[in-house]
Amino acid sequence: MSTGASVGAARTGLGGGFGRLWTAAIASNLADGIGRTAVPLIATTLTRDPALIAGLTAVTFLPWLLFGIPAGMLLDRVDRRVAMAVANGLRFAVAALVALLIATDALTIWSLYGCVLLFGLGETVFDNATTTVVPSLVTRDQLDRANGRMQSAEIVVQNFIATPIAGFLFAAAIALPMWLTGSGFLISALLVLSVPVAAARAHLIGAQQGDEEAVPRPGMKAVVRFLWDDRFLRKMIILTSITASALSFAQGSVVLLLLQTYALPASMVGVVTAAVGVGALIGALLSSRFVARFGRGRVMYVAILISGFGVLGVGLTGDVVVGVLAYAVGAFGVAVWNVPWGALRQAIIPGAMLGRAMGIVRTIGWGLTPIATVLGGFVARIDLRLPFVIGGAVVVVLALIATRLLLSAGRYGQAQASTSRSSDDQNQTISEGTAS
Fold first, then answer.
1. Could you give the angle at which helices 354-367 and 50-75 cross, rounded to 10 degrees?
2. What's the CA gap between 234 and 229, in Å, rounded?
3. Mean pLDDT throughout 182-187?
4. pTM
């Protein structure tokens, strides 16, 4: 992407439709952030086994393995607003159930596992739908900016608002964070219905109007063939899948690392998480500017290296200050990476198959993380820092091996964009029509 294109995008608003989706996502992120912090803390009142704690984190990703592809198939066939509302309605009900089980002293580690699995089921639909709606609300040259804004909001809400609140609420009353989590999901379910119908049904409208790109609608075999035949995309999916597994291997028992190795009180876990989030926020805010100035490929290459060295640094120290700083550096790298990688996928994959394609990509990428997380939990029984050493080292080695692939991302993205300009016209029409 050229600097001129980026400046042009910056001068153009992202539109009211995107703003409504962004607002609904903020409410969902608030609920998600509180829940992600509270659930491991709740689990520590039921067990102190690192493997069981890591297993709980693994179950968070298991729905992507089981339901990622079906969720993508669903989202290519229905109004995505309704799908998001139903998904967060389910998560509201699950949060209320956890709170009731705590209040009646009936919660066990295994029932908590089951509830986390249901939380993840709702997440597969909501997060996938959010990703697929964004390209229908903004133009192609605004994708980096739009993804950066979505990720910045997620980081701010989850790390600087939700997680500190969750820690203090947990210290006050164990069930209190879950009640607030449920409320956030319920509000998000209502807000998401304000997203423009044209954007939420863009993949259906094209088929109904005889849009040349959408007819005939590609079947699942065609989607799989598209992902496989595109050599660059295929290699990137494999690379990001292994990287995600390495990071999950490292972080599965992080709550115990904070409580035991760093001797933090439970009420301070959210505060430390917020401190780590500073790095992620800076990365998300600056990522699109980095891409405009240095090019997508170089930014993605440096970002993955930084994330690996940051995680590795956490495992090499027992000092809480150094550890948190290293964690923040790793989070910075991950956030910088996520913005251009997300925009690149949205630019490459046609809208008519985006839901299913993203379901497949996330199933592959996150489907392996439960296994990696559980393995990391067992390694953490030896030393809580050891998974960070192994996971960070794996990420660094992968980045070095994939140097040529990563540096080619900028050239590839420009080539793909030049062959897909026609979709911008449709996106611009939707964006302009919903800006008022």
1. 170
2. 7
3. 92
4. 0.68
